[in-house]
Amino acid sequence: MNADQRPMTTARLQRLKQKGEKIVSLTAYDATFARLIDEGGVDFVLVGDTLGMVVQGQETTLPVTLEDVLYHCKMVRRGIKRALLVADMPFLSYQITPEEALRNAGRLMKEGGADAVKLEGGTNIAETIRRLVEAGIPVMGHVGMQPMKVHQYGGYKLQGQRKSQAEAITADAEAVQSAGAFAVVLEKISRGLAKELTASLKIPTIGIASGSDCDGQILVSYDMLGLADQFNFKFVRRYLNLADDIRSAVQAYTKDIRTGKFPTNDESFE
Predict the structure, then answer these.
(1) Which residue, of 188, 191, 229, 248, has the fewest CB within 10 Å?
(2) Regarding beta strands 139-144 and 216-219, do their DSSP bridges make them parallel or antiparallel, or are they unpaired?
(3) Domain 10-239 in CATH 3.20.20.60
(4) Smallest Cα–Cα separation from 11: which of 204, 265, 160, 184?
(5) What's the pTM?
C-alpha cells in the first residue's frame, strides 16, 4: 500500500504542514458523493452543517440538529476508504456544557463513524476542546467568521479587518491550539491575517475565503461543482456547472418520454 492509498490520520495532516504540502478538503453529505470525492484524492471530508442550506434548503446552518449530522455522517462513512472523516458539531450540541459536548461528540464517532469533530469558537470553548481531546476525540477548530453567529454579525461578513477583531481571532486560534486541536479552519478573514496565523501556529490552518497562504483549503462541494447555483460567492471557483447540466438532462429526458423516444426496444425486456 503506497502513501496515497493509506488512510489519512490527524498526525499525517500535521506532517503535511511540516513538509509544506497543501491539504485538500471538501464537504460531503451522502455515500455517492463521498466515494467520488474520496477517489478524487482529498485529504479529509467534512460532513458540514452546511447541509442545512444546500441539502435541507434552510437559510442558515442554525436549524441543523445532531441527529441530522449523524444521519449524513453514517452515509458518508460508507463512501470513504482513504480520507479522514470530520463531522461538524451543530448549534447548541456543544456550547451548553463540556459534558454534553463530550456525549454528543462521542455519538458522532461511535454511531456516525467520524474520525474527528469540528467546533466553531475559540477562547470561549477552549475548555470544551480540552475535555474532548483528553477523552481521545480529535478536534478541529474553526475561528474567524463563524456561521453560527451570523445573526450577531448581521450577515456573513469579513472578519478581522479592525485591529481589535484581528487580535480576538488570533487569541481564538491560539486558544484552540493550546487546548489540543489538531487543525483549525480560518473562515472569511483577510489574507494578511490568515498568512500571519498560518506562520505562527504549529497546527494546520484550513482556509475558506481566507486567501492562498493557509496550509489547506476547503469548499462546500455543491458550490465547487456548481450544483448550488443559487449561491454566488466571490471565494468559490466553480469547476463544473452541474446545475445547468442536470436541468438540460432532465429536459431531454422529459422530451424523450413525451415523444415516445424512451424507452426503446433495446431498453425493454421481452
Answers:
(1) 248
(2) unpaired
(3) yes
(4) 204
(5) 0.96
For cell 490520520, what's the residue?
A: 9
Q: For residues 208 and 185, is the Cβ–Cβ distance under 8 A?
A: yes
Single out the catalytic residue among 100, 174, 187, 196.
187
Domain residue ranges in the chain: 10-239, 242-270
pLDDT of res. 134 = 98
Distance CA 68, CA 56 (A): 10
Cα R_g (the chain), whole angstroms: 20
CB 87 within 8 A of CB 73: yes
What is the pLDDT at residue 4? 64
Instruction: Please confirm, yes or no, whether 187 is among the known catalytic residues.
Output: yes
| Alpha-carbon span 45 to 206, nearest angstrom | 12
Nearest CA to 74 out of 44, 27, 41, 34 is that of 34
H, E, C per residue of 90-156? CCCCCCCCHHHHHHHHHHHHHCCCCCEEEEEECHHHHHHHHHHHHCCCCEEEEEECCHHHHHHHCCC
d(CA 239, CA 245): 13
What pLDDT was estimated at residue 151? 95
**Does pLDDT of 1 surpass 50?**
no
Query: Given this model, what pLDDT does residue 240 score?
Result: 97
Q: Judge whether 118 and 86 are in contact, CB under 8 Å.
A: yes
Q: 93: alpha, beta or left, given left = phi > 0 and alpha = psi -120 to 50?
A: alpha
Could you report the per-residue pLDDT of 70-99, keeping only the tens digit for each? 999 999 999 999 999 999 999 999 999 999
Whole-number percent of the chain with pLDDT over 70: 99
